[in-house]
Amino acid sequence: MSVVGIDVGFQSCYVAVARAGGIETVANEYSDRSTPACVSFGPRNRSVGAAAKGQVVTNCKNTVQGFKRFHGRAFLDPYVQSAKSSLVYDLAQMPSGMTGIKVMYMEEEKVFSIEQVTAMLLTKLKETAETAMKKPVADCVISVPSFYTDAERRSVIDAAQIAGLNCLRLMNETTAVTLAYGIYKQDLPAPEEKPRNVVFVDLGHSGYQVSVCAFNKGKLKMLASAFDAELGGKDFDEVLVNHFCEEFGKKYKLDVKTKPRALVRLYQECEKLKKLMSANSSDLPLNIECFMNDIDVTGKLNRGHFEEMCAGLLAKVEAPLHSVMEQAKLKKEDIYAVEIVGGASRIPAVKERVSKFFGKELSTTLNADEAVARGCALQCAILSPAFKVREFSITDVVHYPISLKWNSAAEEGLSDCEVFPRNHAAPFSKVLTFYRREPFSLEAYYNNPKELPYPDPTIGQFIVQKVVPQANGESSKVKVKVRVNVHGVFSVSSASLVELLKPNEGEEPMETDSAGKEEESKMQTEQDDQKAKGDGQKDDADKKSETEEMETSEDGKQEKNHAPSAKKPKVKTKTVELPIENSLHWQLTNDLVNLFMENEGKMIMQDKLEKERNDAKNNVEEYVYEMRDKLHGVLEKFVSESDRDTFALRLEDTENWLYDDGEDQQKQVYIDKLAELKKLGQPVQERYIEAEERPKAFDELGRHIQQYMKIVEAYKTKEEQYEHLDELEMLKVDKQVNDAMIWMNSKMNAQSKQNFTQEPAVKVQEIQAKTKELYSACNPIVSKPKPKVEIPKDEKEEQNGPINGQEDTDAQPGSPEKGAAGSTVAPESAEGNKMPEMDID
Ligand code: ATP
Ligand code: MG
C-alpha cells in the first residue's frame, strides 16, 4: 500500500509521500516540488504540469488551467458562465449538462469532462509519486477546499478513479493543514485540560479558507470553518491585469483583451510583479517585449498604489475571521496562535489585516505551499497498516447544515428535519426511524442556500425500496442510516425494516415499544455516540477508509429510554435490509466513469508511444551532432580520411533528412536510421575507446607482474615474512609471472606496429582477463597466512596490535575485480526488506 498525499491546487499541485521515517514532499521530473495544474493538448499527445505550462502562450487555446472550480458544476452554472469570459480556452456543455472543456487533441475537436481533465493531472501526480517511491501508487489522500459541496466532492472522487487512484479520504484542505501542524506538537494540553485553539488561514490562488481547531494531546477537533470562495491570489492578478490593460490602452492604443496570447503574457507578468511587490515597496517595472503588434510595453507600480487598487479585495479578508470566531464562540484571547499558509498569504496587506484582527503576530511554522499535501500524506499514513504513526484522532466538521425532506401522510404534506447542523462532527452516522407501509423517498438538501458557494442546494434523492406493512397490516418500523462519510459526502447509507414475528419465529429477540404503533411518519433521531477511540486506531485494511470506529451506532438506546420495557411483553423481531435507490445531484454514471477510465488508459498509452517516438528521433539528432563534432576532434585519428568523408557525408544527409522527410516518422524508422549510422561510427568509437583504455589495462597488468615478482624475489632471499610459503607453489608463481610478462611484451610489441585506424592487436578485455588469470593463480599462494605462534600469557597482555605482525599490504595486490583499494560491499542487511516503519516524533 502506498502512502501518498496530493494537494490539487487551483494553480499548483504538491505530492507528499511517507518515506524514510518521515513525510517528504517529492519533486517532479523538473526537480520542482510544485507541479502546475495545467494540461496541454497537442496533435499527437498531451502534456501535463510544467511541460503544459510551457505551452500556455504558444498553444493557448488548447492549454487548460484554472479548472479546479468547475468540478460538479453544470455548464449553465453562473460561476462557470462568468469564468468562461476570462478563459482563453473554450468550455462546452457535456451531454449530461455538465461543464466540459473543448480543445483540439490529436487533430480533432474534443470535449473532455472536468473529471477527465483533473484525472489527467492526477495521472501526472501519480507518476511523480511512483517515480519517487519506485513502486506503483494507488492508495492516496486527496485534498479539496473545505467549502466544496457534495457534487464537487463526488466529481473529484470520480476524477481520482479515472486516474486509477484509490482515494482513501478526500480531506478538507483546512483539516490537512491542522493535522500537519498538530501531529508534531509535543506540548499539547492533556485530554482533560483546556484545549489549545489555533486559527488557520489559507489564501490560495482561488479561495480563502479560515478554520479554528482545538488541539489536545493525541487529537484535533475542528471547531468551525469559514471561507470566501471568491477571494484568492488570482483576484489580485486580475486587478493588476485590468490596470495595465487600461494603461496600455491609453498609452499604446492597444486593446489587450482581444488578443488571447497577449492577455496570457500580461497575466504572467502581473503575477510576477505581484510577488515582487510582496518583498519590495518601491516602484517596480513591468516590461513586455513585442507585446502586441510588435510593440514593447512598459509600466510600473508600487506596493502602496497596488494596495489602494486592491482595497475592495482586502476588505474581504476580515469577514471569515469574524465568522469562525463567532461560530466557535471564542474570544480573541482564547486563540493560542494564528497560522497562515497558501501562496497569497504572503501579500503583506493580507498578513497585516489578519494580524490586526487577532491583535497578534502571525505564526508561519508550516511550509505555506506544502502543508496541505503533507497533511494528506500524514492522514494516508494513519490509514495505512504498514506505517506506525503516533495515534492522533481527527474530528472534522459538517460545513453546511443538511436537511432531509419526505412526504408525510400523517402530517399531510412535506416534513423535513435538519439531520446535520453546521459544525456537527464528521464523519458521522445517525439512525432515523420511520413508520411506513410502502416504499418512500427522502430528499437531502443544504438548508441554508444563501451561504453555499454553489447555485443548487440539492444533494440527492434516496428511495427506500421494498417497504411492506406488517403481517397485521400496520406500518413497519424502518430504520434509515444517514451518514456524512470520510470524504465529507452525505449519503443514506443503509435502511432496514424491523419485522415483528410471532413468538418462537424470530432469531433475534429484542425489546421494543414500536409494536402496534399507528403513526405514519414519526421520526426518531438516534445519534451515534462518538467514541474517544479516534482515527489513529488501526483496523483491518478494508475498514480503514471508513473510520467506522468514530461512528458506533447506539441503536436502541433511545428506545430503551422511553420504553417501559419491564412491563412490555417481549416481541421477537427480524431485521431485513432494504435496497436504496440513489439519484445524486450531478453524479457521473458508473458506465461513464468506466468509459473515461478506459479512455485515460488509451491516452496514457498514446503519450507513451509519442514519447518513445520523440526519444528515438532525438537519439538520431543527438548522434549526428555528437559524431560530427568528434570526427573533427577526438575521433579524427581513428578513421581514415576516405572513411571520414563518407561518414561526414552520411551525417549531413541525415541532418537534412531530419528537417525534411524525417521530420515526422514512425519510431522504427528512427531506430533503423540510427543503427545505419552506428554501423559506420561504432568501429571508430571502439578504436578510440580501446586506445584510451589500453595503456591503463597494460599498467594494471604490469603492476601485478611486478608485485608478484617482488614476492618471488623476497621468497628466494629467504625473507622471514615469506619463509612459510610452499616451495613448489612458489615455483608455479614464478612461472606464471614470467609467462604473463612474455605475453604482455609480445602484445605491446604487436600493438606498437598497428596504425590507429586499424583494429587493435590486443583488446582491453583480453588484457584485463590476463590480469585476472594471474591474480587468481598467484594470490591464494602468496597471501597464505603465517601459522600462529603461541605467546606466553603475560607477554600477550603487552601486545596491542595483531599477534602475527602487520599485514604487508604492499606485497598483497588487490583483486582486480575489487579495484585497487580492494574494497568489498557489505551484504545487504536483512532489515532492508522489512516494511518501513514511521515514527512521527
Ligand atoms: P487554491 O488553494 O485556491 O486551490 P493553490 O493551492 O494553487 O490554489 P497556492 O499555491 O497556495 O494556491 O497560492 C498561489 C497563489 O499565491 C498565486 O496567486 C500566487 O501568485 C500567490 N503567491 C505566491 N507567492 C506570492 C508572493 N510572494 N506574494 C504574493 N502572492 C504570492
Ligand atoms: Mg491551495
List keywords for this structure.
ATP-dependent protein folding chaperone, binds adenosine-5'-triphosphate, alpha+beta, ATP-binding, Nucleotidyltransferase, domain 5, globular, ATP binding, binds magnesium ion, 37% helix, 4 domains
Task: Give a verbal description of the structure.
It is found in: Cytoplasm. Belongs to the heat shock protein 70 family. The chain is α+β, with helices and mostly antiparallel strands. It has 19 helices and 31 strands. The strands form seven sheets. Strands 1, 2, 3, 4, 11 and 12 form a six-stranded mixed β-sheet that branches. Helix 14 runs antiparallel to helix 15 (641-659) and helix 15 packs antiparallel against helix 16 (667-716). The longest helix has 50 residues, at 667-716. It is globular, with a radius of gyration of 38 Å. The two termini are 22 Å apart. The chain binds adenosine-5'-triphosphate and magnesium ion. The site of magnesium ion has 5 residues, from loops.
In short, what is this structure?
The chain is an alpha+beta fold and 841 residues long. The strands form seven sheets. Strands 1, 2, 3, 4, 11 and 12 form a six-stranded mixed β-sheet that branches. It has a six-stranded mixed β-sheet with strand order 18-13-14-15-19-22, sandwiched between helices. The model is unreliable at 506-566, 795-814 and 817-841 (pLDDT under 50).
Topology of helices and strands:
Blueprint: E1 4-8, E2 12-19, E3 22-25, E4 35-36, E5 38-41, E6 46-48, H1 50-53, E7 63-65, H2 78-84, E8 90-93, E9 99-105, E10 108-113, H3 114-133, E11 139-144, H4 150-162, E12 166-172, H5 173-182, E13 196-203, E14 208-216, E15 219-228, H6 233-252, H7 260-279, E16 284-292, E17 295-301, H8 303-309, H9 311-314, H10 318-327, E18 335-341, H11 348-358, H12 371-383, E19 393-397, E20 402-408, E21 413-420, E22 425-426, E23 428-436, E24 440-446, E25 458-464, E26 476-484, E27 490-501, E28 508-510, E29 524-527, H13 557-562, E30 571-578, E31 580-584, H14 590-631, H15 641-659, H16 667-716, H17 727-752, H18 764-782, H19 793-798
Parallel strand pairs: 1-11, 11-12, 13-18, 15-19
Antiparallel strand pairs: 1-2, 2-3, 2-4, 5-6, 5-7, 8-9, 9-10, 13-14, 14-15, 16-17, 19-22, 20-21, 20-24, 23-26, 23-29, 24-25, 25-31, 26-27, 27-30, 28-30
Helix pairs in contact: 3-4, 4-14, 5-12, 6-7, 14-15, 14-16, 15-16, 16-17, 16-18, 17-18
The structure holds adenosine-5'-triphosphate and magnesium ion.
